[in-house]
Design goal:
Blueprint lengths: L3 E7 L4 H10 L6 E8 L5 H8 L4 E3 L8 H14 L4 E4 L8 H6 L4 E5 L11 H8 L3 E8 L9 E8 L6 H25 L2 E4 L2 E4 L14
Parallel strand pairs: 1-2, 1-4, 2-3, 4-5
Antiparallel strand pairs: 5-6, 6-7, 8-9
Helix pairs in contact: 1-6
């Protein structure tokens, strides 16, 4: 089986990266984690990936004079590694429009809210302040506008009485760890595809009631 060569970009411990690596160990998983790359050489996730015998690369953004030059180096590294799909997993950099457009339809992100609600940072605090009863996470394609790309899959959690941001974040993270490997598998296998700015799901990606199997 040909597997999609995938790079995971991180800036820290990379907890979502670790679950993707574990999922990709299955012989029938359609994506191969071919590179773990960080903009921070000290990122703990790099050591984990190296321990799993996955190629790693650190590109320290502080060594580049501007975002454009960093993104050019990032683009070159991904292409040199033969990467077909880019997965952002806690990558704390705003990418330039040129880079995003170069990887259009081949780059995804996971965001800790039910988009289009609560874009940007501090999403759990935003959810609590808004008084919503349901919160969650979304996997989406990356577009130049922040957190605005077509949505691949989502998972929801209840907002419970007495929740603070930390408690809510922990509940959402559990679902992130379930959702991201499932969404990546759908994309890498072709069961989720981008058409006309929308994500089209194959029938195999749904259950008999029409729900996403990844939820």
């Amino acid at each position: 089986m040909s597997r999609t060569r995938t790079a995971v970009l991180i800036s820290g411990r990379g907890s979502n990266m670790t679950v993707l690596v574990e999922a990709a160990k299955a012989a029938d998983y359609p994506a191969e984690i071919a590179l773990v790359l960080s903009n921070r050489p000290e990122a703990a996730g790099l050591a984990y990936a190296a321990g799993q015998r996955i190629p790693t690369l650190a590109l320290d953004h502080r060594a580049y004079p501007d975002r454009g030059s960093f993104d050019a180096a990032l683009d070159g590294a991904l292409r040199e590694a033969g990467i077909e799909l880019v997965v952002l997993a806690g990558f704390m950099r705003i990418l330039t429009p040129g880079f995003v457009e170069a990887w259009a339809g081949r780059m995804i992100n996971i965001h800790p809210s039910l988009l289009p609600l609560f874009r940007g940072t501090h999403t759990h605090e935003q959810a609590l302040a808004a008084g919503v009863r349901v919160h969650g996470c979304s996997v989406h394609y990356v577009v130049p506008e922040l957190d605005a790309g077509p949505i691949v899959a989502q998972a929801a959690v209840p907002v419970l009485p007495g929740d603070d941001a930390d408690a809510l974040a922990a509940r959402v993270l559990v679902q992130e760890h379930r959702l991201y490997p499932a969404a990546l598998a759908m994309i890498a296998s072709g069961r989720a595809r981008l058409e006309g700015g929308r994500v089209i799901l194959a029938e195999a990606a749904r259950d008999a009631g029409g729900a996403l199997l990844s939820l």
